[in-house]
Amino acid sequence: MSDQGLQASVAMMRERGLGPEAIKVFEHYYAQLQDGAQGTIPEDSIEPLGEVQTLREVKVSDEEAREALSRTAVIKLNGGLGTGMGMTGAKSALEVKDGLTFLDIIALQVLALRQRWGVELPLVLMNSFRTSEESLKILSKYADLPVEGLPLDFIQNAEPKLRPDDLMPVEWPADPELEWCPPGHGDVYVSLVTSGVLDALLEKGIRYAFLSNSDNLGATCDPDVAAWMVEHGLPYVAEVCKRTKSDRKGGHLAVRRSDGRIVLRDTAQVAEGDERHFRDIKRHSTFNANNVWIDLQVLRERMTAKEGVLGLPIIVNRKNVDPADTTSPEVIQMESAMGTAIEVFEGSEAILVPRTRFRPVKTTNDLLVIRSDFFSLDEEYHVVAAVDGPEPFVDLDSAYRFVPGFEKRFPKGVPSMRDCTSLRVIGDPVFGRNVRCVGDVLIDGYRRVLDDAVLGELPVPATVPVGTPGDVRTVDEHLKAILATLEPSPTEWTRLTDALGLVVARDVRAKVDLPHFDNSSMDGYAVRADSLAGAGDAPVRLRIVGEVAAGDDPSFSVGPGEAARIMTGAPMPEGADAVIAVEDTDGAAEGEVECRVPVEPGRYVRPRGEDVASGSVVVSAGEVVGARTIALLAACGYAEVEVHRRPHVVVLSTGAELVEPGKPLQPGQIHDSNSSMLWAAAVGAGASAEIRAAVGDSDEELIRALDEVVGEADVVITSGGVSMGAYDVVKNALRSEGIEFVKVAMQPGKPQGFGLLTGPNGRRVPLFALPGNPVSSFVSFEVFVRPALRRLMRLNPEKRRLRPATLISGVESYGGRRQFGRAVVSRSAEGTLVAVPVAGQGSHFVADLAKANALFVVPEDVTELVAGEVVDVLVLDREA
Ligand SMILES: Nc1nc2c(c(=O)[nH]1)N[C@H]1C(S)=C(S)[C@@H](COP(=O)(O)OP(=O)(O)OC[C@H]3O[C@@H](n4cnc5c(N)ncnc54)[C@H](O)[C@@H]3O)O[C@H]1N2
Ligand code: MOO
């Protein structure tokens, strides 16, 4: 790691025509990177932001508003490519509402403000080298938009992507443009200077700028904020919004202890161990909306004083050189964030604005809601909600994730969402015209949604088992409800040896032929078959011209009357078309070899491509990775395969009586056996798992523990606390988190809780609240959690088939509940299965549970079975 990387980068930047200011800033960042800067802001160095001005309470006269707006420009950060939504061009060119693109709406919003206030209000885009042309073409429709003396856009600088090992600029001859990246939106300040736009604005008497992302349609140039800023002479104002539980991830503002300045802490700047504080929405109660107001005069002075380097904190981003190809080499992109400039200006302030000013479209879920009739555009092109109440929660399946897939499945427009609280789509149906969603909608397994369909609430379970009260669900209903909420695990490239048991996400094509080259399948001699034509009558002697072992690359060729010694797996030399096995010769090592049999062309030759032809599909999506698949992929040269990720299960037992195994017990205490049992069962089902320390019987302790795990777990399993007891903590605490508690008509395992926790970034994490009795907990895992884990992994949820077995002794059952008894199953002399129920069928008998190797099922409508009757058994391990 030397200055070579820096020199090479600078040379590239010069050659590209980048100015000295951009290079200077790059050098500044590069030095930070070389020093190993992490760019973190530790929790103990900051205080929460505290009370700030609320926009609603700002009182401004029309005259003040007009005056402030007349000296303001709108700058939109427009470098985004929308790769996350499967787009390749400028994201803001996406049609977002009423046939208008983001850019159309931005232009119309500005024109409406100009007209209403009689101001000039210039609009300038900061484009990247990839977005400029397409964006300007859209804006060219608005003839009145350009303002004299100002361009409609300026181009953000570019910098080389760096190799992580030696910080040299990466080379990518396949597409040299991919060797470059924009240096993050923090570059706006530098680019404003280098493009001359800053001075041009000041010259026109424009003193303030409103900066925001072009994909945030809520970010209109609000005259009240402008006037408030002018009135108080503020150099820099950042808009913040109240944080809710689902925005635990975005950056937030805080006050730096050392100098009292406001700073921005983004996700990438959280120090290790501070994640919990970062996510704590009580402590850091607002988030940064990335809507920024800046005094351009102050910016000019700062830039001059600091010789063009504002000194924003660096963000180190790791990506692939070709973002569309996750197997391309890893690179470092040094970036900075616009909002971090808040710390540079003395007297910066934050203002609390309504959520409506933060309406980004980051996913196709957001796109569906924005396009729908839940929102409309008012006469000034503001996006306004057409109905009161919270926005519907939308969760579309992966087929809709990219814009082309989304458009294809909503060819006649998106559904009406005015009366919808949530929409989840599993599968990939095409939606018809005029579809209406009402309440909570779940679509699972549809091929097509018909025109004019009204999609309603989840159907109430229709069947109630015999002899049970109405609030009880059947086992099948509960399992179905669980499976319906689950999405397959995300896919990821995984080392072959870590992918065992996982499901392949995408077809794998061979990039090579197998065998790679014609080679011998025997130890012997490579020959021309016609040299041995007479060997059937009398031995033929051939001259040995060389030797080839596996791994060699023979440079000689074999002519008529010649032979080469060859080993199994060694490449065939030029000229030879067959192999004679050493057993059919005298085995000579040099000189001449005597051959006793003729061979036909191709004998003992394994031709190139015989096994696998380059370009053919060797492993298909949906296949489960096993030893044989691994062999094939490795043979084709793959070190990794794209699979559905192994879900990570966190096990959390509850109960004040629990003590970790190995530690001494006080009176009344017991050892926690469920944690390790559930861990083992999860690992056995193919998940990865970890145990968290058991929590006592306090709501807060449990919520705190869950808060910690929800960022890391794909599935949470709790045990205990779900029945009717006075200390049934899980039930009490989790009801308010949206977990549903039901009685399931089964024994053991009657009380069950299930639901989705909301993790950072709105990620949904399934939580199973299993009963505490050890046998109940185990059976619940087998019946509900195992199929769920398999569904997440894209495996068939029910692998273990029920098999008939003859009961050796009679059993009684409650009736009205499906009983899962424990039994030892073995094979009789006739080859049929026989089941011996274990003695202790109570939910606390761990010894009898350990003895058993199967569960036997007594149906809901049966109360007694006698010896000799046949039951269904679910074999857990191999039969005894
Ligand atoms: N009045 C009623 N009482 C109970 C009912 C009911 O309907 N009405 N249902 C019973 C059924 S059925 C079950 S199953 C259990 C479920 O109990 P909880 O999930 O609330 O679990 P706890 O009360 O915390 O514990 C039950 C039992 O299991 C032991 N336990 C708990 N955790 C562990 C662990 N990690 N390792 C080992 N053992 C554990 C705990 O000490 C209790 O003995 O409720 C019935 N009651
Ligand atoms: O259903 Mo409880 O699970 O009887 O033991």
UniProtKB/TrEMBL annotation:
Residues 650-791 form the MoaB/Mog domain. Its EC number is 2.10.1.1. It catalyses: adenylyl-molybdopterin + molybdate = Mo-molybdopterin + AMP + H(+). It is an enzyme of class 2 (transferase). SUPFAM superfamilies: MoeA C-terminal domain-like (SSF63867), MoeA N-terminal region -like (SSF63882), Molybdenum cofactor biosynthesis proteins (SSF53218), Nucleotide-diphospho-sugar transferases (SSF53448). The keyword Ligase does not apply. The keyword Transferase applies. Pathway: Cofactor biosynthesis; molybdopterin biosynthesis. Belongs to the MoeA family. Catalyzes the insertion of molybdate into adenylated molybdopterin with the concomitant release of AMP. This is molybdopterin molybdotransferase.
